Amino acid sequence: MTSVRRRTWTAPDGEERTAWLVDYRDAAGKRRSKQFARKKDADAWRVTAEHQVATGTHTPDSESITVEKAGEQWLKGLRTMRDDPLEPTTIAAYDQHIRLHINPRMGAQRLSQLTAPAVRRFLDSLMKDLSRPMAVRVFRTFKALITDAQERGQVAQNVALAVKIRKAPRERSKATPPPKDDLKAILIAAAKSEDAKARAIVELAIFTGMRASELRGLPWSNLDLREGTVRIDQRADAKGLIGPPKSGAGNRTISLPPRVVKVLKEWKLACPAHEADLVFPSAKGKPLSHHVLMKFHVAPLLAAAGTPHHGMHAFRHAAASLWIEQGLNPKRVQTLMGHRSIQVTFDTYGHLFEQRDRDASDAAAIERALFGDAT
């Protein structure tokens, strides 16, 4: 039975103080109490506690922990996880979310005292102070650390799951491939360059659409220069650690044009042998950093071609646009690009598919106008 009673006592300063205690039994039958300054608040909490105990969603404050402590134990668990471990850069991002954005706002709050309105205010503050993508990532981290605490019995329910992120108007992020004249200039500059590694990087990037991280982590064993294919099943992260692609869709095999095979064969003869057997190793045999790859290999070629404004991702867009122009269907382009969903492919390159279809339709219309339907 839950009850509310008045408590009075004399404070050290001699004044009489009053508080209101809610006495109740938890789901295990243990007697507990919670104190409030106002009877109104005590009565409201009594109703809530009765419902939570009855539905098995009550966690006493003494058995709960703060959001900050929940974040610490969640990160510790991620760092020691042996089955399907996360990349260090991913864990570092979660740690940053907690230190910079969650703890300053909610760190001292006990999980058992969290309410949906409080979580809504927290989410609103994230949306106000951060970019929408960052706010969404931080809130996902927040929900994940509470779920972890729930699984440990430190809170009965994750109230954050009831707080939804309001949808923003969807904006298509259209890719703009480099003009063909720019690509030709870059390939000509590569052919003239004495940097065989740079030639191989640029040729492979333009004709396969591989991400820079995938190029940096590519081993020679994944290249079949006899059959003319490259198998992508690993990448190098920002710290140079080799790991799997960020999603299962990143595992794929791409055919290589003869010109790329030729360039790779030339580079293989010049490539220093190292234990890691990387196609593009550093002087120490480790994966090239993105900075070194760009500054010392790609950027000089772009400057020689007169196209210094392009970057590695422009080569990825170039590959996609060339495949689309050749008539590949969206699903095939998705596979070759390693996109996790067809929606990503359409959001990024949908306008190129539409343009291709319009061009084909226009060409057919011109033919009919000239020769009629009998041709």
Entry summary:
The chain is mainly alpha-helical and 375 residues long. It has 13 helices and eight strands. It has three domains: 56 residues, no CATH class; 99 residues, DNA polymerase, domain 1 (Orthogonal Bundle); 179 residues, hpI Integrase, Chain A (Orthogonal Bundle), CATH 1.10.443.
Features:
3 domains; 13 helices; single chain; mainly alpha; hpI Integrase, Chain A; 3-stranded antiparallel β-sheet; 10% strand; 8 strands; 375 residues; DNA polymerase, domain 1
Give the arrangement of secondary structure elements:
Elements: E1 3-10, E2 16-25, E3 31-36, H1 39-55, H2 67-79, H3 88-106, H4 116-129, H5 132-151, H6 180-192, H7 196-208, H8 212-216, E4 223-224, E5 229-232, E6 235-236, E7 242-243, E8 252-255, H9 258-270, H10 290-305, H11 312-325, H12 330-337, H13 342-371
Antiparallel strand pairs: 1-2, 2-3, 4-5, 5-8, 6-7
Helix pairs in contact: 2-3, 2-5, 3-5, 4-5, 6-7, 6-10, 7-9, 7-10, 7-11, 11-12, 11-13, 12-13
Plain-language structure description:
There is one protein chain. The protein has 375 residues and is mainly α. It folds into three domains: 3-58, no CATH class; 64-162, DNA polymerase, domain 1 (Orthogonal Bundle); 180-358, hpI Integrase, Chain A (Orthogonal Bundle), CATH 1.10.443.10. Helix content is 52%, strand content 10%. The chain has 13 helices and eight strands. The chain has helices at residues 39-55, 67-79, 88-106, 116-129, 132-151, 180-192, 196-208, 212-216, 258-270, 290-305, 312-325, 330-337, 342-371, and strands at residues 3-10, 16-25, 31-36, 223-224, 229-232, 235-236, 242-243, 252-255. It has a three-stranded antiparallel beta sheet with strand order 1-2-3, with helices on one face. Strands 4-5-8 form a three-stranded antiparallel beta sheet, with no helix packed on it. α3 (88-106) packs across α5 and α6 packs across α10 (290-305). The radius of gyration is 30 Å and the shape is elongated.
